């Protein structure tokens, strides 16, 4: 199964970074396409988008100044199928993308994504004290996977900090 296309451009306001595509995303070619993934509901209900987008419209987030990528491009059934080598390569590639494209805020969709990217183990939700790439803001949010045990309202509350942050830096 082929990796799915990143949606990237220079100077994005916000870049979403996931673990890797699901099998469903790999089949459709679109980010967060698994029907059990709540990403599209979360970003709408948190105030990040004016309406609930469908996974097939993922590229339209670029019109809002938002991009999408993953730390590992290979689709898998679960994140535990990702190898250490894939994380290492993905981390290096992600640092390169962020350094070149200079998004203002990077939202890591899952604490584990940020742990793999930063090498840090203990970290809070939200803005991180120090960003990996200087000049950007690292923001850690819960995974949108349906497997996450956190209440959806709590997840939405954390994502709702991002629109406030965007307004403060614009």
TrEMBL record:
<protein>
    <submittedName>
        <fullName>DNA glycosylase</fullName>
    </submittedName>
</protein>
<dbReference type="InterPro" id="IPR036895">
    <property type="entry name" value="Uracil-DNA_glycosylase-like_sf"/>
</dbReference>
<dbReference type="GO" id="GO:0004844">
    <property type="term" value="F:uracil DNA N-glycosylase activity"/>
</dbReference>
<feature type="domain" description="Uracil-DNA glycosylase-like">
    <location>
        <begin position="8"/>
        <end position="151"/>
    </location>
</feature>
<dbReference type="InterPro" id="IPR015637">
    <property type="entry name" value="MUG/TDG"/>
</dbReference>
<dbReference type="Pfam" id="PF03167">
    <property type="entry name" value="UDG"/>
</dbReference>
<dbReference type="InterPro" id="IPR005122">
    <property type="entry name" value="Uracil-DNA_glycosylase-like"/>
</dbReference>
<keyword id="KW-0227">DNA damage</keyword>
<keyword id="KW-0378">Hydrolase</keyword>
<dbReference type="GO" id="GO:0006285">
    <property type="term" value="P:base-excision repair, AP site formation"/>
</dbReference>
<keyword id="KW-0234">DNA repair</keyword>
<dbReference type="GO" id="GO:0008263">
    <property type="term" value="F:pyrimidine-specific mismatch base pair DNA N-glycosylase activity"/>
</dbReference>
């Amino acid at each position: 199964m082929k990796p799915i296309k990143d949606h990237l451009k220079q100077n994005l306001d916000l870049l979403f970074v996931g673990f890797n595509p699901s099998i469903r995303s790999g089949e459709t070619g679109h980010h967060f396409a698994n029907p059990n993934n709540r990403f599209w509901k979360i970003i709408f209900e948190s105030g990040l988008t004016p309406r609930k987008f469908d996974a097939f419209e993922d590229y339209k987030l670029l019109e809002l100044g938002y991009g999408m990528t993953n730390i590992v491009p290979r689709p898998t059934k679960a994140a535990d199928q990702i190898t250490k080598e894939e994380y290492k390569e993905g981390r290096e590639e992600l640092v390169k993308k962020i350094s070149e494209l200079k998004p203002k805020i990077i939202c890591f969709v899952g604490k584990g994504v940020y742990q793999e990217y930063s090498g840090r183990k203990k970290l809070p939700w939200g803005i991180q004290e120090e960003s990996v790439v200087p000049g950007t803001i690292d923001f850690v949010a819960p995974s949108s996977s349906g497997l996450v045990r956190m209440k959806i309202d709590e997840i939405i509350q954390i994502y709702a900090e991002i629109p406030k942050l965007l307004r403060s830096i614009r």
